[in-house]
Each structure stands twice: as structure tokens, then as C-alpha cells.
TrEMBL record:
This is Protein kinase domain-containing protein.
Length: 106
């Protein structure tokens, strides 16, 4: 597990990948939620003020980043859904696309 920490961008990687090297579309969903946060925060680094070695522990204890200032509520809800600790509770990418299409009125 220590070798994984040196090879993965911890702040963008789903907890199950960091703990058990389980890669699925649901772990990609987690990372997509982080990407959304970055976009709506205008490029800030995720988990500001949390040392990198503490990020996983915070996540497993239920901590999630606050939505960026002026982030639309629908996007905030989507981020939260992407960050469910249980991978099966996260949306599929088809669901994400549908939510984003509804959000932009497509």
C-alpha cells in the first residue's frame, strides 16, 4: 500500500483504490467529482489545509470538501454523489451525463 501512495495522485484517487487497488468506473466517478470541484473552484488544489498523509483518514471518517463559492446547487449535489464512500452508491457516468445535460438545458 505504501508503494501506491508514491504512484497515485492521492487527492484525486478514490479510497478503495488507495486501500485495496480496486479500479472501476466508480473509482473514476470519485475522481470526476474532484475534477468538478477543481473546475468550480477555478483550479484550486483539492483538500486545501489537509496534509496529504491525512486525506484518506479524513475521507473515511466522513469529511468531504465544501462546494466552491458560487457553485450551482445541482453541481454541488453531483460532487457529493461522486464522493460516496461506498462505490456502488456513486452514479454511473451515464447518470452523470444525464444530470449535466439537464443542468445545462441540453
Amino acid at each position: 500500500n505504501e508503494s501506491i501512495r508514491g504512484k497515485f495522485p492521492i487527492k484525486w484517487t478514490a479510497p478503495e483504490v488507495l486501500r485495496q487497488s480496486i479500479f472501476t468506473s466508480k473509482s473514476d466517478c470519485w475522481s470526476f467529482g474532484i475534477l468538478l470541484w477543481e473546475i468550480y473552484s477555478f483550479g484550486r488544489i483539492p483538500y486545501p489545509r489537509i496534509p496529504i498523509q491525512d486525506v484518506i483518514r479524513h475521507i473515511e471518517q466522513g469529511y468531504r470538501m465544501e462546494p466552491p463559492e458560487h457553485c450551482p446547487l445541482q453541481i454541488s449535489h453531483l460532487m457529493s454523489a461522486c464522493w460516496e464512500l461506498e462505490p456502488t452508491a456513486r452514479p454511473s457516468f451515464a447518470e452523470i451525463v444525464n444530470k449535466l445535460k439537464r443542468f445545462i438545458g441540453y
